[in-house]
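Lecture 7 notes. Example A: sequence first, then its structure tokens.
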Amino acid sequence: MKRIYAVLAFVVCGLVALQASFAVWADSGLFLWIAGGGTIDQSTMESESLPPFPEAAGFMLHGMNGMMVIPVVALVLLVVSFFAKVPRGIAWAVGVAVLVALQVTLGILGHSVSIAGLTHGINALALFTVALLAGQRAWRAAAVTAPATPVPAAA
């Protein structure tokens, strides 16, 4: 169970890294499109037709991953933490869950309060760090408690 805890924590790290990649990919595409003469307003982004630039899919992927996938993995990590018996594992999982909740809140607020976007990025780094530390602690705890493999006797 400790390994499952560790893997879930590392998955959160990977998903946070993907979040950054999706956002930068979309932003880069947006800047290239504008540099090429494109213009953008609310109706452009809400249009039912194809997005004006292919990288706009990054905005959708960033939103879906951040609002659905990461919170589900963080919740599963929290549930697993009660059974994994990782030292301070519940506290680390609660830390991940709280930072995920804050991240979602900041992401939503960023649409109306620009400073929330700045703190959204900083919180992402904190979330990555806490999830990484939680995964490392669980991985080490699993290695310490792993049963020794018997060495076969020489014939």
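Example B, a different protein, same format:
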Amino acid sequence: MPGKVADFLRAAELDDAERTSLDHGQAVRRGMGYTLRVTAVPTIHRQLLNRCQTLNGTAAVPAQRKARREYENRVNTLGE
């Protein structure tokens, strides 16, 4: 998951399973930002993706919208 999405989700209200997944993720530096490697079942990833829907709107900066789209593309490639 892109770091901009992870930062947004850390400030959001999450349930216990989602919070645990984020807390146990491993941060990997990527250029100027980072990627958070989260090991979770696809349903948790889909729940996290739904929680960051507001990053699709006009209130988000372009980098946040792009990060959300990238995360959505990764989640959509997961099998259930």
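Note on Example B: The mean pLDDT is 89. The longest strand covers residues 26-30.
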